[in-house]
Every structure is written in C-alpha cells, then in structure tokens.
C-alpha cells in the first residue's frame, strides 16, 4: 500500500490511516509506505505525478497493491492519476479531507494534473496554467469521508467547498426532476448550521451532495452525453469562468471553490443577458454565495484576458465555446457559442474590468514568477 498524504493533514491522522489500511488489507505494517505532498495548483503537475509514481516504484507496488489518497482535491486527483497509470492501473482508495473533496472531487473517478505552458511576454492575454488538462477516468474502489477530519480545515478552505454545493443546488432540478425544486432554499436554510460547523448539518450536506453527484456520474460516467442531454457536463456550471479565473489569478490567491462560486454568478449574469432566465437570478445567486460565506466580486483584471483564458478550457470542442448556463433557479443546460457581449456581461457582474489588456489595469492580475 502507498498512502499519498496531504501535508495539511495532521501527522496523527496520517498515521491512523496508514495503520488502518495496513490492517484492512492485511499487509504487514512495513508494507505501508507514505508519500507526503504539499498541494498547490502549480504543484498539481506532471513533476509531482512523477514523484508519486517513483514512490510507487520504491514501495514496490504490484498490480494487486493499493494506492490510498488522503487529502484534499489536489492530492486525490494526483494520487488517483498515479493509480490510473502506474503499471497501467492499480486499485485506489480515496479519503477526502476537505469539504470540497468530500462533496465533489472524490465522486466520479476524474483524476489528473494541470499542464503549465509558457507565458508569451508579447501577448498580455496569454496565461500559463491549463487546469486538469491531462488525466484519466479511474474510479476509486472505496471512498471514506470522515467529517471529523474537517475540524482542522482553515475557514477559507472550508467555505470554498460550499461553492460546489451551491453549484449542485443550481442544477438539482435538471438532475433530479421535480424533487430537485426548492433546493436553493433548502441549502440556504442549512448553511448557518454548516458554517457553525455543526456535525449533523455537515454530514447531511455531504450526504446530499455526494448523492446528487453520484446520480449525475452514473448516468454519464465518461462525459459522453449529448449537449441536449447535458449529463456530466452540467457539473461544469460556473467552471469555465472559474477555470479562467484560476488560470489568470495566482492560484495561491483564490481557492478553486471560490473561483467556481464567482463563476456561478457570472453564468447567471450571462443567462440573464441572453434572456434565458428571468431578471433576478443574478441577485439571488449572489445572495446564496454570500450566505455560504464566499466573495461575490473580485479584482479580476481585463475581460479580454479572461475571455482568452476561457478559450483554452477543455469544454471547447472544434473551436466552439460550450458554456453551461442556468435556465431556471435549479436548472441548467449547455449553450453553444453564446454571444460574446452576454459573456462579457457575466464577467462584469463579478468585477472584471473593460480596460484594454495592454492597459495599466492589466497589472492588477497578479503576475506569476
Ligand atoms: N476530480 C474531480 O472530480 C474534481 C472535482 C472538483 C475539484 N477537483 C480539484 O480539486 C482541487 C481542489 O481541492 P480542494 O479544494 O480540496 O483544495 P486542496 O487540495 O488545494 O486543499 C486545500 C488546502 O487544505 C489543506 N488540507 C487538506 N485537508 C486538510 C485538513 N483536514 N485540515 C487542514 N488542512 C487540510 C491542504 O493541504 C491545502 O493546503 C482542484 O485542483 C480541483 O481541480 C477535482
């Protein structure tokens, strides 16, 4: 067994998991190796993957052995990808330790790393991080989410997980039909207890979100559904905006879930501009994001740079931009090539500026070294 552990998870928890895994798989204690990863989006890279693969080799894992991921979404994605590729695939167990990885990343078998491409100094619109561009579908054999481990999670990281919960509420009717209606209100009612870190409220939140995501994934395990059916792609609501934010703003400054929450507001504003939803959805979405303790605006820099970053998203097929946009309070669908001015309206709603990419305002995008 190789345990790939998040440096953010306390030593005691890491030791306990190593012990438990040794017991579960009936391996001698000395056959449980540990590899610790300090997770950052920059470090969610092919290089880190290689370190994990080398740890697999040093631990002499064979096809019957097991990789255990113990950590947030980054560690889960990298360890899962290592399990997918080492010796063409080992079984793996995912033990998510952040709220985001419990409610989202640990369900569905997507694994992978980011791809860093060089920034072109002559093109202010170029950027250097292609999120989750290399990866594989590789379902874990088991997912163990122990909500007690969230106690040590910094507030900012905890709240970021709520961004994905807001997203799930916003597609609930599309996924569950009639039963999904009213999910925004149900989430809003649950949020005070969750933010107060009440164990029962958190457990209920995790259970509902895992069930929703599992339902989506079961119906479309490899994201092959047609645009009309939506399928797994619906989970990308807010993500094309969110990924562009993460790609252009230094990853250390914005959490993935916070970027998604901003993306949800931008998606709602784009829908309003296209006339897909009634006026009022943007304000309602802002209110829900605020109730989750998340920011509703950020200093994002010029729209032109963000638009160009969106063009590199994985959801672009054959050069056409496919955006998941709300069509109701709890419903969404894929829109192909939405009007640029409507997308720009989305960016404006969360604080992006109309300044030219070459303007001084471009300097507001924190540069990466
Ligand atoms: N595979 C999927 O389907 C999927 C879905 C959503 C997101 N993701 C990916 O997940 C990543 C984001 O995951 P995340 O939000 O968990 O962030 P993360 O993995 O960066 O973890 C956030 C921080 O929390 C620390 N940490 C983890 N557990 C802790 C604990 N119990 N106590 C204290 N600190 C702890 C980590 O060390 C890190 O500093 C992104 O890279 C995103 O692309 C994947």
Provide a concise account of the structure shown.
By secondary structure, the chain is α/β, with parallel strands linked by helices. The chain is built from 13 helices and 9 strands. It has helices spanning 11-24, 46-58, 73-85, 99-105, 155-170, 172-176, 183-195, 199-219, 239-248, 256-274, 281-291, 303-310, 340-349; strands at residues 2-6, 33-37, 66-71, 91-96, 110-116, 129-137, 142-143, 322-326, 332-336.
Would you write up a description of this structure?
The two termini are 37 Å apart. Helix 2 packs across helix 3, helix 5 packs parallel to helix 10 and helix 9 crosses helix 12. The C terminus is likely disordered. It contains 13 helices and 9 strands. The strands form 3 sheets. Strands 2-1-3-4-7 form a 5-stranded parallel sheet, with helices on both faces. A two-stranded antiparallel sheet has the order 5-6. The chain is globular and about 60 Å long. Helix 3 links the parallel strand 3 and strand 4. By secondary structure, it is of the alpha/beta class. The structure holds nicotinamide-adenine-dinucleotide (NAD). The site of nicotinamide-adenine-dinucleotide has 29 residues, from helix 3, helix 4, helix 5 and helix 10.
């Amino acid at each position: 067994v190789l345990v790939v552990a998040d440096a953010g998870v306390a030593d005691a928890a890491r030791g306990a998991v190593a012990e438990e895994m040794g017991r579960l798989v009936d391996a001698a204690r000395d056959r449980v190796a540990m590899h610790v990863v300090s997770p950052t989006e920059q470090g969610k890279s092919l290089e880190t993957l290689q370190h994990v693969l080398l740890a697999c080799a040093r631990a002499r894992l064979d096809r019957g052995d097991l990789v255990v991921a113990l950590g947030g979404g980054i560690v889960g994605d990298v360890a899962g990808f290592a399990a997918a590729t080492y010796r063409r695939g080992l079984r793996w167990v995912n033990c998510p330790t952040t709220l985001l990885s419990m409610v989202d990343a640990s369900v569905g078998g997507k694994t992978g790393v980011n791809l860093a491409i060089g920034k072109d100094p002559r093109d202010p619109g170029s950027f250097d991080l292609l999120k989750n561009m290399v990866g594989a579908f590789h379902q874990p054999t088991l997912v163990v989410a122990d909500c007690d481990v969230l106690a040590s999670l910094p507030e900012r990281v905890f709240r970021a997980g709520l961004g994905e919960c807001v997203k799930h509420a916003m597609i609930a009717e599309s996924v569950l039909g009639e039963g999904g209606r009213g999910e925004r209100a149900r989430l809003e009612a649950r949020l005070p207890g969750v933010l107060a870190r009440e164990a029962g409220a958190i457990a209920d939140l995790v259970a509902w979100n895992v069930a929703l995501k599992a339902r989506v994934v079961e119906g479309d395990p490899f994201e092959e559904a047609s645009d009309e059916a939506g399928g797994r792609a619906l989970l990308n609501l807010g993500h094309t905006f969110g990924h562009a934010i993460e790609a252009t703003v230094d990853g250390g400054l914005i959490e993935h879930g916070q970027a998604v929450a901003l993306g949800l507001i931008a998606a709602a504003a784009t829908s309003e501009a296209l006339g897909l939803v009634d006026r009022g959805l943007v304000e309602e979405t802002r209110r829900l994001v605020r109730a989750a303790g998340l920011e509703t605006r950020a200093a994002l820099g010029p729209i032109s740079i963000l638009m160009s970053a969106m063009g590199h998203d994985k959801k672009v097929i054959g050069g056409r931009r496919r955006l998941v946009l709300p069509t109701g309070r709890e419903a969404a669908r894929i829109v192909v090539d939405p009007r640029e001015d409507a997308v720009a309206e989305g960016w404006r709603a969360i604080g992006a500026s109309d300044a030219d990419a070459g303007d001084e305002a471009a300097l507001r995008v924190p540069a990466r070294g």
